[in-house]
Amino acid sequence: MRYGAEVxxxxxxxxxxxxxxxxxxxxxxxxxxxxxxxxxxASAPAACTSLLNSNQLPTAEALADFLAGDVSxxxxxxxxxxxxxxxxxxxxxxxxxxxxxxxxxxxxxxxYEYFGPMHSSKKDIANFIPGTGFAIQGAGLDSLxxxxxxxxxxxxxxxxxxxxxxxxVVRGGIGVFxxxxxxxxxxxxxxxxxxxxxxxxxxxxxxPVSTYSRSGYNWDAVQAGGASxxxxxxACSDPNCAAATDPKGLGAYSVSPNxxxxxxxxxxxxxxxGFGNAGVLQIGYVxxxxxxxxLVGNINQNGAFPNFGNILQLNTIGNSNYNSLQAVYRLRAWxxxxxxxxxxxxxxxxxxxxxxxxILDDAFNRSLDYGNGDFDTRHLFTVxxxxxxxRASWATSGWSKRIxxxxxxSSMMNFHTGQPYDEVRSYLNLIGDPFKGVDHKFSAANxxxxxxxxxxxxxxxxxxxxxxxxxxxxxxxxxxxxxxxxSVDFSVIKNVPITExxxxxxxxxxxxxxNRINLASGVGAVSAGxxxxxxxxxCAEDLTLHHCTSAQSFGLVxxxxxxxxxxxxxxxxxxxxxxxxxxxxx
Length: 586
Fold this sequence. Notes:
Blueprint: E1 2-14, E2 23-25, H1 46-53, H2 57-68, E3 70-79, E4 83-99, E5 104-115, E6 126-129, E7 133-137, E8 140-141, E9 152-160, E10 168-178, H3 184-187, E11 209-218, H4 219-222, E12 250-255, E13 263-274, E14 279-298, E15 308-334, E16 337-350, E17 371-372, E18 379-388, H5 398-404, E19 407-416, E20 429-430, E21 449-450, E22 457-458, E23 485-497, E24 503-511, E25 540-542, E26 547-549, E27 556-557, H6 561-564, E28 577-585
Parallel strand pairs: 7-8, 12-15
Antiparallel strand pairs: 1-4, 2-3, 3-11, 4-5, 5-9, 6-7, 9-10, 10-13, 13-14, 14-15, 15-16, 16-17, 16-18, 18-19, 19-23, 20-22, 21-27, 23-24, 24-28, 25-26
């Protein structure tokens, strides 16, 4: 039997001053450039037509707003957000194995996890509690949420040899796994709307922070005469900001009193078959279910708290599901060749995939966002192979052995389908086939690849009488997927022995050998969203034909996967590139 325990105390100095200098959005909607006297005129100037045809009009109009100082929206956090917090945690576990028969082995165990609430001895953390208002942790509020003390996590697994021989094994297991509580949503959420960054951003207590928002103004006009765009710190004296002198409309952050520790059920069933010295095949089912996962929603979406602006509440009411078929074939050393072939067919579902910077579309209906996960990759196929070239028997001299022998070829191949690109709902209605008439070919004239047909969508929030329905649209979150990925890497390697323990390795590594264009995929890769979408507003609605148009680059993929993920030119899947390497190995 194995057993153990661990005690931890984490100390964190949180000093993020996010939005301390403000966030200002210039989107081209404020100036006259989009109206009837500008590019929105029936007979638009030639310059507008040129920008429109090259998909540069939205950027040009946004730049015009910036130069004119016409701000679409803005937000700022004023105050001292620095906090010193402590988290206590401990766990206990035991595990054992039981050889029931020669063919059947059982392993089992139990783990207990405790993750205590974040707290501070400085009494400077205010939590907004619906029905109560602001309460200070350590001064009237014992903890941000009740400690979760029933986190028992059993696990059990087995290995069975049906024939009594080691070349055929059936393995399976299931277990409960509690997740370490992530402090990022508590202290550094990075909201997509005007709201505090976390629990430290509330306008109450000894160190208040005021989060302001302001929309539709001219930068110079509002600062005329030395005026400021935003006031200084304004704290609430009443827990609900109800006093006559209290500021109104400030944002707030809440940790739900029902917050609990997230946990997962992980399970699998595998069959492994060996083929002598040739190789081994493993195929099986792997699944996971997440429960009590973090979700953040704007609980003032319905205006229930009139003294406040947006109120974000952190809950643990999310769910996730992952199911997959996984197969792996490993070829053991065969005439100098070793390789592995792997294939995964899977499906991931959840409410929200991101742990911060994303909120529920409807805080009171989390099922509205339940759909394909942001990282859902239906098909994945990988190959890795290494081949040691045969040694030349005639190379017997010192130099001939060093030059002719010890050559190696190696390759890595990765192919997978694309990932969803919405993150949250797109606020669009689906009215046609999004891939009709779309060839997915790269076009320099278009500035990228048109991935979905704009005419297959309409915006129910664009004031179009021919496109009605729910303001959230009828298109489910992450319904469609971005471009797939394919890359073949190849290496030529030469090992030059110097002494028994020292050798020089020379290698030429070629990435994306066939120079395949790998377009961006995943959240934000395809710009397709309606007027109310928090991520995009690219549907320029045709009020006559009642569908979106491409005037604002709707449905366009304009980046490659490496650049999109922050590694332009040299990242995975980027254009063919070659590196020459020399190593001394000892």
